[in-house]
Amino acid sequence: SLFSIGREPLSAYEVLRFFWLTIRRLCIKIIGSERLDRWLWRLGFFHAKSHLLRRIWTAPDGNRITFRPMEETIFKEIYEDKVYASCHIPEDGTIVDCGAHIGIFALYAARRCPRGRVLALEPSPLNRELLQHNVRFNRLANIEIFPWAVSDHRGSGEIHFGGEYANDYCLRPTFGDKSQISIPVELRSLEDIFEEGGILRCDLLKIDIEGSELVALRGGNRALARTRQVMLEIHKLAVDPREIVSIIEAQG
Length: 252
Prior knowledge:
By secondary structure, the protein is an alpha/beta fold. It has helices at about 10-30, 35-40, 45-50, 70-80, 105-110, 125-140, 190-195, 215-220, 220-225, 240-250, and strands at about 55-60, 65, 95-100, 115-120, 145, 150, 155-160, 180-190, 205, 230. The protein has ten helices and ten strands.
């Protein structure tokens, strides 16, 4: 078979992705990536793509999560690699999830703090729709969802994403990519989030915001001073890890 040479047969998703990327490359040669992605956005392609091939997975902690194929790596991070296992999440704790995506970590944390609360921030409408679905589906009343993008100030801004990776959003075009689509969003600093959420103590601040982590931390000195643990993903092409460490250590 063309799709199983030297390996196991490809899934339906992988076959469709192969054909889609082949067609995309041909279209880019003719009209360019920026024009192609803007046309696809206006036609509702990315919305349709977000709803196709969805699956449901039952996690070891009982969460039943609806996801898209590209989100499988997040399950592996949390449930196989156990990247959050070292974090202490008290039963009555307060967790702030910046970049909640479709809610895999938010649901994981909510199971561990049944008498606490999880604030899940996700500015992408496509991701947030699935986040809201997963929270309702699991009947977790201790998760609060907000549509904000985390920055160093309050205001209005834009998040950007590229056509091939329409589930990854950031506050600036990714590393010089000019084929980005922009969506208007509300911005909040960490201090705004803590103030509006009435957070006096944060037991765990999780940050995964695609290269904007340094900007977010710069707008949160008082919030960091009230935070016991920080777990974040660092994009080394966008920020200097030493600056991240310096800001966090300065707040104890």
